[in-house]
Amino acid sequence: MSTTGAHVPDDGAGGSPRSGWWWWTRRRGFLLDAVLAGVSALECAFEGGTFADKTGIVPGLGALLGILVGAVLLLRRRWPVAVVLVGIAVSPAQTGFLLSLVGLYTLAASEVPRRITTALAAMNGLGTMLVAFLSFEDSLRDPGDGSSTSVPVTVIVSVLTALGLTAPPVLLGLYVRARRRLVESLRERADGLERELELLAEKALERAERARADERTRIARDMHDVVAHRVSLMVVHAAALKAVALKDPQKASAGAELLGDMGRQALTELREMLGVLRTASEVRASPGPPAAGGPPPALPDTGPAETGEGPCLAELAALVEESQAAGMGVELTVEGVERPCGPRVEATVYRVVQEALTNVHKHAAGAKAHVRLAYREAEVAVLVTNGPADGTTPATPLPSGGHGLLGMRERVTSHGGGFAAGPTPDGGFRVSAMVPAPPR
Q1: Per-residue pLDDT tens for 20-31?
Q2: Number of domains present in the structure of the chain
Q3: How far apart are CA 206 and CA 192, in angstroms?
């Protein structure tokens, strides 16, 4: 930073438009400096003429010099150091008191280093004290005998005069400078907080979008699990019913009854799913708007597996019997001591077995399957294997969305478990899942 100039904000800055004149950023600042310079020029012209008259110089020349000195105040915002130096230089002529006062204030309020401000203020104070001392000494001298008042009294008065003309503008300038810095720091902090709030708002929106996407994925997965298995079994039974309708009416009647039961079960599970979704929507819509600056309300979990409602491991036997009734050779084996594993864990394992059996119906007609459920010390594991299609059972065309394995993996990994699926060496397929379930 230059030692001869510093930027000083306009004293009268407000809402006035910018003019861009030299170092003035606002017209109000220019008008203020012009008024101060005019008053200072008049003062210096009068004092300069008086001083010139006392010293035998042409008064007009002294007044002209005073006008030039007073007009220097126009430069106070750009070169405050130069203004103070001019005031110190003309102080022996008892000229430029307003120039010195405004110059010291501007210097203290500017960004000039403190050591320069202190040095110039001390020089100005010392000059003012010497001028005051000589003036008081001359005015108090007794013209009759040439005696004067006590020197200590004159010194004390001179010092007080110097302090009175130097300290107030310097202290006021330092206060304005500190206040301006405080306001700037608060403004920067407010801008920083505003940017942080914007980032937090963006992150909150991202979290909300992510939550909505997860919710849509979960709803799609649950709807797939609830509907796909039952409907697949119904399609298989319908194909078998068509084949035996004319040959064995009694068997066809039993098959039709079973088909109706499966349809009713599918509708019941679908109603339960829609009821859970409707309840979750009402809960999500009930809270009021979030408080100002507060986090957005969290989206509630939906779906039977997440709310604790849904199938459990005790229903695996019924699930296997349904597949057996549809003509699949499937066997269930349970290892370990049965224990409650929590509704979410049990629903997840049940859905894995359900989707695996559904895939057997779709892709391996007539194949035999084996469901193995194992209760271990800190987890529950399930393994579903099936052999290749026997080639004699006619395949029933069933639509496939290709999301079954992905949905199973998502369910299992959401609990921190492991999932694997793939073909077996004999041409079949295997699905295995492990879900942490420590004993309660």
Answers
A1: 566 677 777 778
A2: 2
A3: 21
Cα R_g (the chain), whole angstroms: 48
Q: Are residues 29 and 117 part of one domain?
A: yes
Tens-digit pLDDT profile for residues 135-173: 776 666 655 544 555 677 777 887 888 788 888 888 998
Based on the domain organization, do 352 and 204 belong to the same domain?
yes
Residue 139 token pair: 């005015």
Going from the C-alpha of 339 to that of each of 282, 333, 372, 380, the distances in angstroms are: 34, 15, 16, 10
CB-neighbour burial class of residue 155 (10 A; exposed 0-12, middle 13-18, buried 19+): middle
Same domain assignment for residues 100 and 232: no
Predicted confidence at residue 420, as pLDDT, reads: 93
Q: For residue 172, tell me if it sits in a domain.
A: no
From first CA to last CA, the distance across the chain in angstroms is 72
Task: Indicate the residue among 149, 168, 186 that finishes a domain.
Answer: 149
Question: 342's torsion region: left (phi>0), alpha (psi -120 to 50) or beta?
Answer: left
Q: Which domain holds residue 379?
A: 196-285+299-436
HSE (side-chain half, CA atoms, 13 Å) at 279: 12
Give yes or no: residues 144 and 273 share one domain. no
Q: Are residues 206 and 85 in the same domain?
A: no
What pLDDT shows up at residue 27?
77
pLDDT confidence of residue 300: 43
Alpha-carbon dihedral sign for residues 344, 349, 353, 359: positive
CA distances from 297 to 176, 194, 211, 421 (A): 45, 21, 11, 38
Hey, how many other C-beta atoms are within 10 angstroms of the C-beta on 251? 13
* 418-423 β-sheet, strand order: 329-335, 368-375, 379-386, 429-436, 418-423
- Residue 274: give its domain's CATH number: 3.30.565.10
Q: Which amino acid is at 105?
A: Y
- Let me know whether 219 and 127 are in one domain: no
pLDDT at 190: 93
**Count of CB atoms situated within 10 Å of the CB of 105:** 22
Residue 273: the pLDDT is 67
The pLDDT of residue 195 is 93
Q: Does some domain include residue 11?
A: no
Give dist(CA 326, CA 232) in Å, integer. 10
Helix (H, G, I), strand (E, B) or coil at 277: helix
Please identify every stretch of the chain with a pLDDT value under 50, giving residue numbers as ranges.
Answer: 1-5, 9, 12-19, 145-146, 286-308
- Confirm whether 190 is domain-assigned: no
What integer pLDDT is reported at residue 323 of this predicted model?
A: 83
In a domain? residue 378: yes
